[in-house]
Amino acid sequence: MGEFLELKAEDNNIFSAYISQPSEKPIAGIVILQEIFGVNKHIKEVTDLYASKGYLSIAPALFDRIENSVELEYNENGISKGRKLKELCDKNALKDIDAAISVVSSAGKVGIIGYCWGGSLSWRMACQSNNLSASVCYYGGDIPKLKNLEPKCGVLTHFGELDQGIPIESVEVFKSVKPEVITYTYPADHGFNCDHRKQYCQISTKVALDRTLKFLKVNL
Fold it and tell me: 71: buried, middle or exposed (CB in 10 Å: 19+, 13-18, 0-12)?
């Protein structure tokens, strides 16, 4: 359904992005932010999914600053390499995301949806960018640590109650500090939205998607 195109960030970094277009005039633009596994099959499927819902959707390849065409497996080796690449790319990722926002802004308002590392980036972008109208964050590990940031647009967050990497206690603290952010928790593990990994939870995924689509409809 989609295809890759080449983008340039404000610091002249050249990187690729997977873009997927709806069959009719787009409702708005959506930027999909990757996990630490790259713009892999799952992320492309998610991007296509939102295009099928009427959004001009794009997934920037945030690891391209270090290594092109990264698609990692959901195993220990993939996690190890993904974490290293995240550390190297985390600081400048927002510049690449800005470039992706510019592309899909041709469709009107823009929302952002991130998973894992991308969930944390979605929160940071919501608190930094003036060009977003909605942000959805799936199990972003840095979000509770960045609870003092102030969002500039509506934010919806999804967390797994069984996620060992994001203690539910820290999520509850985040909820109390940020009552303006819509925060949901699910009886699921980290990565529950990805049907390519063992942590996948079909019911939680469906409920979270329904909530996300309603949130986007209100804000975009």
Answer: middle
Question: Strand, helix or coil at 157?
Answer: strand
Cα(122)–Cα(177) distance, rounded to whole angstroms?
18
**Residue 184 and residue 158 in contact, taking contact as beta carbons nearer than 8 Å:** yes
What is the C-alpha separation between 218 and 65, in angstroms, rounded? 35
Backbone angles phi, psi at 5, to 5 degrees: -135, 170
Cβ-Cβ contacts under 8 Å for 206 (sequence gap 6 or more): none
Distance CA 164, CA 219 (A): 31
What digits encode the pLDDT tens for the residues 66-82? Answer: 999 999 999 999 999 99
Structure tokens at 8: 């340039």
Query: Is the model's pTM score more than 0.90?
Result: yes
What lies within 8 Å, CB to CB, of 48 at 6+ separation is 1, 2, 20, 57
Phi, psi of 163 (to 5 degrees): -75, 110
User: Tokens 């050249």 — which residue?
Assistant: 14
Closest CA to 57 of 48, 69, 45: 48
**How long, in residues, is the chain?**
220
